[in-house]
Amino acid sequence: MNRQRLTRRSILIAAATWPLGGWLAEAHAQSKQKPVVIGWLHTGTREAGANSFAAFKKGLAALGLKEGSNIVIEARWADGHFERLPVLAGELAAKKPAVLVATSAAVAIRMAEAAPNIPIVQASGANPVQTRLAKSLARPGGMVTGITNLSTELSEKLVEMLVAVAPKVRRVGFLLDGNSRNPSVWLEPARRSAAQYAVEAHFAQPATAEDIEPAVSALAKQGVQALISIPSPFLGSQRTLIIKYAQAQQLPVVGSARVWAEHGALLSYGADTSANFRRAAYYVDRILKGTKPGDLPIEQPTKFELVINMKTAKALGIAIPQAMILRATAVIE
């Protein structure tokens, strides 16, 4: 009788303590797991990319991926030196990350060369199909997926916006990235848009910071009445110089991101980059959960921002039509 009571008591104690023991064992196993490594490479400085980086981390946190807890972000910054991209991409590949985040098409290309077997999420930049990193938007098929900001198509919209705010403009200077491997991808849309809006197109292709002033001066000598900076990480990193030298020539500047207008360009029009980088976190999360990058459709942005700098407009003697002011996402007074 006593033996039966002892046995029954032992079973009840074991049954009561098993869930706790099982949970402790699982927790102990999880504590031994190393945080997942995510690689991040930006063409600019840490300061210039701060907003994009913060938006990306905010997107990750919303999905339960918190830096210092279950993930580690290995970040590299090229500080505007594009020749460093291959080396920095190689450094990240050596960290054996679970996924790499490319902040532009140029970065995605270098990452794909340095780490062909690691999933890459492109958070901004030209269409990966055009850069031959994906077979199609719907089914990328390879190791690259993410978001495109329609940068090549955007050049046409920039001409439209310029003509809308300054209808007397007849000669437009286009600044193209001299580091581009395939400049025709950018030249053709610019020429097409210039023809559509009956303006003369003149081109300059600076490749270094030292090329900016001569490029702007050359366009001014050709009689251009405004400058459009074709979307590019390099030109974006040089926007302060571009605006400075353009203002010296009394030329309005049009850029493709809000920061252009915030730094003195006449206007900017482009995708909401913060939204793009938050969305990039979704792709990282899906890949970490086992989805192949080639099975994740590449998305195009749905939210665009038109920002007009009225202070610059007044300095240049440009009267912005009321219709454009009402259309703007933001107006800088």
Summed up, the helix count is 13
The main sheet comes to:
7 strands, mixed
Kindly report how far apart the N and C termini lie. Answer: 92 Å
CATH architecture group name of the largest domain: 3-Layer(aba) Sandwich
Bin the strand percentage: 15-25%
How many separate structural domains? Answer: 2
Q: How does the helix and strand content classify structurally? A: alpha/beta
What's the mean pLDDT score?
88
> What's the CATH H-level homologous superfamily of the largest domain?
Response regulator
Helix content: 40-55%
The helix/strand order is: HEHEHEHEEHEHEHEHHEHEHEHHE
Unreliable residue runs: 1-31
How big is the Rg? 25 Å
Could you say what the CATH topology of the largest domain is called? Rossmann fold
For the record, the CATH class of the largest domain is: Alpha Beta
Global morphology: elongated
Query: What is the strand tally?
Result: 12
Strand adjacency order, main sheet: 7-6-8-9-10-11-12
Q: How would you characterize this protein structure?
A:
Strands 7-6-8-9-10-11-12 form a seven-stranded mixed beta sheet, sandwiched between helices. The chain has a five-stranded parallel beta sheet with strand order 2-1-3-4-5, sandwiched between helices. The chain folds into two domains: 32-149 and 273-295, Response regulator (Rossmann fold, 3-Layer(aba) Sandwich), CATH 3.40.50.2300; 151-271 and 304-332, Response regulator (Rossmann fold), CATH 3.40.50. Helix 2 packs across helix 11, helix 3 (85-94) packs across helix 4 and helix 5 (151-165) packs parallel to helix 6. The protein is elongated. The longest helix is centred in the first third of the chain and has 31 residues, at 2-32. Helix content is 45%, strand content 17%. By secondary structure, the chain is α/β, with parallel strands linked by helices. It has helices spanning 2-32, 50-62, 85-94, 105-114, 151-165, 184-196, 212-221, 233-237, 239-248, 258-262, 273-288, 310-316, 322-327, and strands at 36-42, 71-77, 99-102, 120-122, 144-146, 171-175, 200-204, 226-229, 253-255, 267-271, 304-309, 330-332. Strand 3, helix 4 (105-114) and strand 4 form a beta-alpha-beta unit.
